[in-house]
Amino acid sequence: MSQVAAPSSMPADPEGDPSVAVALAASLVGAVGSVVRGKDEVVRLSVVALLAGGHLLVEDLPGTGKTLLAKSLATAIGGRFGRVQCTPDLLPSDITGTSVYAPVDGSWNFRAGPLFANVVLVDEVNRASPRTQAALLEPMEEHQVSIDGTTYGLPDPFFCIATQNPYGQIGTFPLPESQLDRFALVLSMGLPDRAAEREILTGQGGAEVLGALASVTTPDEVAAAVLAVRHVFVAPALVEYVLDLTAATRTHPELTVGASPRASTGLLHAARAHAVVAGRSHLTPDDVQAVAGAAFAHRVAVGGSVDTAAARRIIADVVARTPVPRP
User: Fewer CB within 10 Å, N side or C side of the chain?
Assistant: First the structure.
């Protein structure tokens, strides 16, 4: 694969040095990978979504390790883990929190919900009602919640991992486009291979070793790494490459809705984070190609609806047909 050459010198900005994020990313991938066995690509892209400052949507059946992935990430960053099990009768206040009246002194005290954590698993998000789904929009976009006229900031970092049934087995309330657009990447866990499943069965991986997992960093260091990722060098030709890929989705005959400007911005952020996870402080075409499917599949429409499985195939075709910038 042809790649754009790395710059001869990087901007002098110690607070935004991507090399710090490179070391942290390697530690996170190793720690989470020691628990989530046989899913190296899923682990890498999960760390990519975290360092890109975005959120992750996982489409898969029960029992494939989604909860284990979220708990492992929370433990590895030394942060707090929150979980929301979505049901049709779940209320917005059940996840954001609510004001509780204290009859002793007549005051109202805010009781935080499970969203107030560094890593939050929202399980089966498409089983929640549209009203409850909408309660996630502000937290995912602005990292805050507004309750009774008061705004409460969420922890930094705030990383949401939501799960839903795959296409064809959609739950009660499918996610609207505005909700899907809040996710940086969409992934599928898939089943482990035989060797990885053997390790899970024999206690060499999976939930059996989660309790022994130690944190490899802190939430403050992760928050700093997210900022440092924005300093990954991007050659002008690669900016044009992202624009070319985005434009190609808007004219592809099989896509009824192409990628939006927010999608192209998300692709660039995710590609920068992928470069860091790959151990570099500059972007290459390989980084863009590695995350294009996961960054676009939930933000385009196939036949008038969201079909991430079909969209991944089409995005792969778009990537294959779009000229790669030369050094």
Answer: N
